[in-house]
Amino acid sequence: MGIAVPSTLVSLGNLISVRNALPVMYDSQNTTTRAFDESGPPLSQKGSGTYHMWTMIGTHNYFLYTNDTAFLASKWEGYQLAMRDMTAKNR
Fold this sequence. Notes:
91 residues; mainly alpha
């Protein structure tokens, strides 16, 4: 997501694919830990703090480039919970 979002914008001129990919990551967010998967289906690997943060960075960049407030509002609770999970690990 860190490379994909800006690259997609530059190469395709839109972020439709990112807009479609991010909800998959939020839909598979762990309900207990609030961690994101390392990858989407069919692999849906778990356990990487790095990839967890890349989903968060991808969300940030998508919003930064699109100002899609409706999308951000729909994912905001999951985003906040994911950030709490990550900051709790770094204490």
